[in-house]
């Protein structure tokens, strides 16, 4: 059983999803790992990780719209339609900042993924997404960490 | 440290919970594992995993009712009581489909569980649940993956 | 690759957050681990785990206030401002009990954290929090489990 640590960077462009499944699989394969655990950590508190459908892009649109409907933008912002519902004390970094922190805690900052034969174990309709919750373009770092068996070790046994 | 991968299937019967704790413990024991990580992955995007109370069944009823209250069924459906609140663009697979995707992202598709002496480390009142979010009977597959020590290895040291 | 299991106890004082990051790092270092996975399990169903901002304490206040706004206290309680919205059948253990179970399922009971050089891999602004959802003082146990490499093993290779 061996370990590897690295970082992957993604550039986001406002609220929405980046399918990172292929990048994760490529990282596994380039490092010659066969099977193990792929531990993924978002190093930010205003974007998050989730696993959801990879087929109809409307699923992602609806997910985003739903999350916007239950987490209002900041009251201080003209964007807020829910001025009477909630009042954020942390409003200084923008109308989308405190909502982004909330959305992060409602989803995941870490995901522990299993992989076999160099590929993350997912269902046919699943993808791993980096979910950006801020309005503006951001560079996002994910810590990637594998504990597992390499192909060579298995063949040499 | 050794690994094992397999799949477990469960048949669900509409929105609700299946306590899978005993099945997970049995899988550990049948494979002679003593201690390690049990990485559990739901291979679907309309059911999910959660850890919650194993004692009063009303907790599960209330959890389900709560989730139904914050994630309305699709507007196109006669089931919806929230026609003016949200509008799903992904409505073609049924009134319960997009809500199921949302509920999945609000809970967990993967759980990384620790186990010792052949049993998942949980508190007295905790159980691991497969949470079905669709209305109809479904066959659900979970990917199960253990990294850990076997009983024999420990005794032979 | 070696394993260690233990329990950590924290005393909470009502709804709110305890930053447990330093305690987790200390546990890693005291046990001479360098790098690996730190699997953390809350052994309760009315408190949970989350990763969020460590800088402005208002973020935590807003997180708590937000969660209170979407998960009403029990209808049977005079605290509830949402009597017509939801009705909990599990009300016998107090106005804050069923809401605490819900908040637990909306956040995390387990977190699988990566660590390197004796420290959990987090971003500059991230901390790991134990999130108490009950009103009263509680003793909370976390199961801690490391799979990783010790410093000595690495130096002796």
Description:
The structure is a homotrimer of 157-residue chains. With 157 residues, chain A is an alpha+beta fold. In chain A, 25% of the residues lie in helices and 40% in strands. Chain A has four helices and eight strands; from the N terminus they run ββαββααββββα. A five-stranded antiparallel sheet of chain A has the order 1-8-3-5-6. In chain A, strands 2-7-4 form a three-stranded antiparallel sheet. In chain A, β5 (110-116) and β6 form a beta hairpin. The first copy, chain A, starts with a strand and ends with a helix. Chains in contact: A-B, A-C, B-C. Chains A and B meet through β3, β4, α2, β5 and β8 of A and β3, α3 and β8 of B.
Short description:
Chain A is α+β, with helices and mostly antiparallel strands.
Q: How would you describe the oligomerization state of the chains in this entry?
A: homotrimer
Distance between the termini of chain A: 12 Å
Strand content of chain A: 35-45%
Report low-confidence residues of chain A grouped into runs of 5 or more. none
Radius of gyration of chain A: 18 Å
User: How many DSSP E strands of chain A?
Assistant: 8
Helix fraction of chain A, binned, reads 25-40%
Largest inter-chain contact set: A-B, 35 and 33 residues
Structural class call of chain A reads alpha+beta
Specify the overall morphology of chain A.
Answer: elongated
Integer average pLDDT of chain A: 91
Query: Can you write the helix and strand succession of chain A as a string?
Result: EEHEEHHEEEEH
Helical segment count of chain A:
4
The major β-sheet of chain A equals: 5 strands, antiparallel
Major sheet: arrangement of strands of chain A = 1-8-3-5-6
